[in-house]
Amino acid sequence: MIVPRFHQPQRLILSVLVLSGLCSKLLHIYQHRSLPLSLLALYFPTFFIQEILLFVTVWILLYTTTGRWSVAAVIGSAFIACTDLLATSSQVSFYSQTGSEIRWDAARSVGASRQGMNLILSGLAPMVATATVISVASWLAAQGIWNLMSRWLCSLAHLGDSKIYHQLPGPSDLRSLVSNKSRLWTMVASGVTIGLWLIRPAVPYNHMTGALPFTMLGEHSRARRIAIESFPLPELLNEEFREPASGHYKGWAPTMDDLGNTGYGNEKPFWAQGPLPAAFERWMVSPEAEGSGSASNETVSVSDKQDHENQNATAEPRHYFYNPSQDPMRISNLDLEPLAPLQEALKDHAIPINHIVFVFLESGRKDLFPLKNTSRLYSQIRDTYEIYSEEDEADLHDKLSQITPIAEMLTGEESGFGSSVDSSNTELGGLSFDGILSGSSLSAKSRLVNYCGLGPLPVDFMHENDIIPYQPCLMHILDLFNKRKSLAPSENATSEPLEREWEAIYAQSVTGEFQDQTRLIDLLGFNQSLYSEDIDMENSTYFHEGMEKINYFGYAETEARPYIKDMIDETLRQNKRLFLSHFTSTTHHPWGTPEGFTREEYFGELHKSQHEHMDGFLNANRFVDTWLGDLMKLLNDAGIADETLTVFVGDHGQAFGEDCPTTGTYHNPHISNFRVPLLFHHPLLPRMHLNVNGSAVSILPTILDLLVHTNSLNQDDAEIALDLMNEYEGQSLIRPYRTSHNGREAWNMGVINAGGSMLSVGSAAVPWRLNLPLNNDFEYRFTHLDKDPYELEPITGWTMSALAAEVHSRHGPEAFEWAQKAEKVGLWWVMERKKLWNYRDPA
């Protein structure tokens, strides 16, 4: 039997390679459709240079090799073609799921763990469908593509005598004419393409030229510019603005050099005696090292399970420390009195905070804590229904009122769906905030902001797992309180709550292996931890048949309930003060819920298929809201509800197609990924709903401030807390928030997932927001949150000059000047974080 030519492997291999490469590049160009169409058309041929060279090289290998070399050429070419096919299918799948561009370096990092690989494989169905379509098309087009390339290339190089060229139809003079014309037009096209390539701007067109499989081989992002080392607004550092030290306040007198940071810590405060937790490194300077600023690790005292991590983290002593008096961006409000309602409440009754529960809400959006009938999300839901009467609207409101009733009850913010929430209920008090922005849209980096009151490292993924934080985290401070009590134990340690030691516990029902979370949690100073790996074990206390994992990370929060209850009970039995941090996870993609949970369809029949992801997210939020009620009941059952401060905060938001073209947080700067709920709940706190255009970096100093002002620390611990409150970058949220001071703005920095490509730059003093690209692959983006609170019409540009010109045209000279200032401050902040984290960019 004679096999048809289009079934020969060389033809099929070339066809798969060509169609995969072209599909990949066309999708890549489409993702840059914000560029002017005229320029895309002009430079269009230059985008395919690498593809053409690859196609020609593979054709030469397949066409000219014989014998054993032919077999090697077929195998090698088939490998390249299959790689291209799989990569292109992955690109299409990723775009269909998220609306954004896949980054191969990030994919390798995420796929390094089993859970990360499961996350990647969640897009397997569209990937297989794309691969199938390309494969079938390649099969059908194989002969045509082979003939087209063979005729063209043979005519250029006079290779046709032996294989294809003599089969061309027509007399010899016609073949000669084809050859001459092919060479002529090839030379003309090549010359024009090279000319356009030489004159086109580097940004973003160099990035658009990359071709598979070359883009998979390594990191191709290039730094956009030389980073700014010195603070770019020196006029704000004039001597007239300096502030003297007073009491616990360290003063403010920044200089343009690093001497104040390298020498900070030489003068130890009264409490920095004896063994200190690892994060207090700046006060561990040995006498012989004082002159050099080198830190000695001889006084570091950590738990046994942290030893290995801290040995690695301190392998190279840090020489540059955070100095609050040298921070040119720092604004303090600790000289202001606490908010009046809090002062009044403290006059009326004691507000004991003997325990702290810190709840991280995965993908916690402020507009879902609680959902209100004044939100844009509600309007989008309502628009999918045909509502003809008040009864129809009442039915819809009744359904929506069931999504976040616990959040509504805790915050006292009425949803407007008819649920009865008494905002004056004295049994439910607390400070709820609008306007708070996450410090990072990557969960692990966000934890650092919330726990430690610092800026995360603006590089991709979690290098922080190997570095002791440059600020003591809340758990380190509690450990310091414990160590001082152990040095001078009190006779009333078991009976007096303020003399008891703290027990720091971390609990989540999902894996701790993803991105090495267990390493980070140990480094941050927790005494105990719970992950799905602990729940999984057959000898676990509450292991049972039928345990159901709801996603590729682990179990629903309810599986952790009995373990959390035991941790609370055991801590109280030991007469210790509880610090429990709990991370919810059901609201992470793919928004699965346990089998027994009844899922609702919140969007109506109009365009229902367009809202499937948001529908799943709303169901996951309803499940987590119910769980928060269960968690609060655990505290009540343990008898500590009236003496526990519970902090609820979103680790970051979550963008959907209802918000912007790109779904998720990855390389997505949209504001919905940064607006998060923040609530400090205590039954005896006054109910306050505050609008503060601030950052989660303020959480730690606020907790310390609350502990001091509610007399929830003994005298020694209170003095330490007062001293440490003045060491942090953030302001206290129980005092009037300063949006600006002496010309300085209260900047809000947000590291965008995965960390090293984009930075969100905002300010409490203005309604503007700049998304700053840190490499050449992303655009500048400017929004006016007063005029466009949902960022529906952002201004974008591939250069700062282009963006600033459009900002000036649409928003005036003040916005124009702020955008340029924000770029400089953001770049300085990036370099300063790297210095503070003792991080060096790889060569």
From TrEMBL:
Q: Where is the composition biased (Polar residues)?
A: 293-303
Q: Does the keyword section mention Oxidoreductase?
A: no
What's in the keyword line of the UniProt record?
Membrane, Transmembrane, Transmembrane helix
Q: Name one Pfam family in it.
A: Sulfatase
Q: Which domain of life is it from?
A: Eukaryota
InterPro entries tied to this protein: Alkaline_phosphatase_core_sf, GAG_Ulvan_Degrading_Sulfatases, Sulfatase_N
The UniProt record lists the Sulfatase N-terminal domain at: 525-707
Q: Where is this region: Disordered?
A: 287-322
Where does the sequence pass through the membrane? Answer: 12-30, 42-62, 69-87, 119-142, 184-203
| Signal peptide (from-to) | none
The entry's protein name is Sulfatase N-terminal domain-containing protein
Species name: Penicillium olsonii
Taxonomic lineage from the root: Eukaryota, Fungi, Dikarya, Ascomycota, Pezizomycotina
